[in-house]
């Protein structure tokens, strides 16, 4: 979900890279334990490294440096929180595959001008021995913490269908999906006093409910002291309409008028004629698909599964009924009793191997047996269509935007809970606000 959050997590890592040439690596510092976090320990060298990096950053940005004890306390708390999260990473057994780590390190390497991991390693280790492994370890920890946060925090985010629909009707939501509105805009100004202005504006609103003839309304309600001016704004993107007006338009149905909007230059009334999306329709190819799956098990070996699917394929080629064979042999409980039918399937819904065969097979042809993580398959596409998924995509976009809004708030709440539920013992009383206050 969170590309932006991932970038934030990498900021400190990239910063460390930039500082490597001038910040010492405290690998051999007098490593006494400064804090115990769960089953792990924070060493003096860890804290000194963090202090050195923070001072370098503050000096580079020409920011005021806080008192030493305040800075060290803040940095120790950051390390405690990081260790608490890494403890959770171990608890849940989260692992990072080598390719994902290499890709992340390579992304940092390219920012430094290196075109390979080998060149990057030589560059860093030439500046400070062990710097490459230190950076690689930090990136790995960042990625694991990001994965932990997504796993733990996403389950806390609740977005209802009503939340989605409300967002899509809002000015922000309609701007996000490219919504346009055809709006009539009438301004009533002048008058001897506010009461007179409001009275005429209400009459204009009533008239506007009955007609869209702006010239008629202007002529009927303009007087020597009251000016009524109407404008057909045509189709306008809600993102291009002043926020106060867009907010009023977004809740209207076609044919409805807004409440009176009193501002400094008069009283405004809006009428929504129509709304449309300026986005092209999201037409997605779909495939009406059925398949037969043979899984391996304690009873069925990999070789036996392959033999079974080959036999089924030959029988299909010989003209036997697909539905009957699926109902008899398929190990997919969700589709077997329905003749192997999966219904209309969009690209990306299935695992890549299945997806590829589904999209490349001609209608009514049967694929040769192929293997996925679930077992051996044969599939048949019986029909194709282009499906308008615009609304579904807009809903997905809305959920993503709303989820990202909630994510940072929920991360903060989760981190506070994690910190309060983690055993922490700070050895140096000068770095523990609770002990410092008692002394």
TrEMBL record:
Would you say which domain of life the source belongs to? Bacteria
> So which residues are the signal peptide here?
1-27
Q: Which PROSITE patterns match?
A: PPIC_PPIASE_1, PPIC_PPIASE_2
Which reaction(s) are listed as its catalytic activity? [protein]-peptidylproline (omega=180) = [protein]-peptidylproline (omega=0)
Segments forming domain PpiC: 178-274, 284-383
A molecular function annotated in GO for this UniProt entry is: peptide binding
Q: What class of enzyme is it?
A: isomerase
* Enzyme Commission (EC) number: 5.2.1.8
Recorded hits in Gene3D superfamilies, A to Z, give: 3.10.50.40, Porin chaperone SurA, peptide-binding domain (1.10.4030.10)
Name of one Pfam family that matches: SurA_N
Q: Name one GO biological process term.
A: protein folding
Q: In which compartments does the protein localize?
A: Periplasm
What does the UniProt function comment say about this protein? Chaperone involved in the correct folding and assembly of outer membrane proteins. Recognizes specific patterns of aromatic residues and the orientation of their side chains, which are found more frequently in integral outer membrane proteins. May act in both early periplasmic and late outer membrane-associated steps of protein maturation.
This chain belongs to which protein, by name?
Chaperone SurA
In which organism is this protein found?
A: Acinetobacter rudis CIP 110305
The gene is surA
